[in-house]
Fold:
Amino acid sequence: MGGIREARENGAGSDSENWTGRGQTGRLPGLMIIVIRPHAPPGKIEEVVAEVKKLGYDARAIIGTEQTVVAAIGDERTHHTLESLLAMPQVENVLRVQKRYKLASRESHPKDTIVNVDGVLIGGPHFCMMAGPCSVESEQQLLATARAVKAAGATVLRGGAYKPRTSPYEFRGLGKEGLALLALARKETGLKVITEVLSERDVEHVAATADILQIGTRNSQNFELLIECARTKKPILLKRGMSERIEEWLLGAEYILAEGNPNEMLCERGIRTFETYTRNTLDLAAVAVAKKESHLPVIVDPSQGAGRADLVRMLCRGAVAMGADGLLIEVHPNPAEALSDGQQQVDFELFGAIMRDLPPFLKVTGRNLCDQSP
Ligand code: PEP
Ligand code: MN
Structure:
């Protein structure tokens, strides 16, 4: 047929004959394809095969009339990366067949992960509403908001004690005082608390108060912070970096899982695009992709997502319809007086309307609003 012919003399020989992975049926341990430049002499192909083997993989060259490739069999996640082969002049491309994230992938864990936040279940059929102010500003502001969001059906109270601000002159949060107020609000209302950890320095004392650690968009790839947060074993909500690809976001999630903490949620909060009518572009397609690719619950933050209070209600409906496992919404007693993100915070009335909108959207995606704590 003149098509592709296996060149056993260049390959790994008979021990890699079994393409189902050294005697195990059905699964390859991992596969990479190294594309050789056209017209490379056989000696140059052998050189690549030898190099692949040196790096710990089985290798087999497949010589076609037009194109030759070397298949490398082995798990790139546990071996040396093969991308370095691009340094060889006869190598045109190195193609990965396997996903770079393993623990975060649906393949490794087909069922939805259900995160247990001190008795509140999130994921699978359990949909969770997280709401509260952008920043914790005062006892009065936080408690009034906590009572209002609880009465409307929220289960988790949000509120930043440590705020990442673009300018150092803006309100950067009450710090430990803010954490104490969150603890007070939890005590009074029974709501669980989610709050952001900005730095490794704060992990221990934030974890002592928070029920969920929020990792913000600006820290999404701060891997040392991810590892420190993971070690607390607390549930973690990992926001997507504002310029992150979905693969990078899932690799960030992988850091937390690889550290032995399975209590993780992803959060889509909008990405930077050329659009100026919204602060960010809320990527609802990413919600669908993340749900397909990963078993982790996906939460949507339409507040940072659009940066506009007038769009939050519609985006909430859309997010739930897309299959989100929860929403994270900024709510303030008087958004015009907020110390941060006033333009995107909804008031109590609008929050109530958002909650009343949800049932039909939850119904089509087979979810129930998770139970409130007593
Ligand atoms: C926030 O939730 O207030 C916040 C700062 O979020 P992000 O990290 O998504 O900007
Ligand atoms: Mn905010």
In short: The CA atoms of residues 11 and 60 lie 4 Å apart. The pocket of phosphoenolpyruvate (ligand 1) is lined by residues 134, 160, 164, 216-218, 239, 269, 301, 304 (CB under 6 Å).
